Hints:
Blueprint: H1 3-21, H2 26-30, E1 77-81, E2 89-95, E3 103-108, E4 118-124, E5 128-132, E6 138-142, E7 144-148
Antiparallel strand pairs: 1-6, 2-5, 2-7, 3-4, 3-6
Amino acid sequence: xxxxxxxxxxxxxxxxxxxxxxxxxxxxxxxxxxxxxxxxxxxxxxxxxxxxxxxxxxxxxxxxxxxxxxxxxxxxxxxxxxxxxxxxxxxxxxxxxxxxxxxxxxxxxxxxxxxxxxxxxxxxxxxxxxxxxxxxxxxxxxxxxxxxxx
Length: 150
């Protein structure tokens, strides 16, 4: 190799070393010369042609079935409309009032408050069963907790 070629090779190596030594700063290694020193590339807008990858979103979201309805506990005092508040069927009951006084339930054919609306009724002092018919308009209870039988 001639001296001229050796000198050119050494100069090229020297230039390469200067270029490589300049790569120590974060701007030079990341290709972002327009953001403040110390800002990560992922936290700065892509203004120099940087390709910003978006997180992959699944094409189809898995469907989660709704939870099975939990049988609700009816209040122990009130009027329950059949088909809306209470469903036809057989119910067990317990008295929630004072044991000496007991409780009361009645099945109703109308909601006018007239005595003719009462289909059947019972004053109870302990547990028992009753059946709500699809033709009943409502059920009224006083200190009686109804629980659907399964």
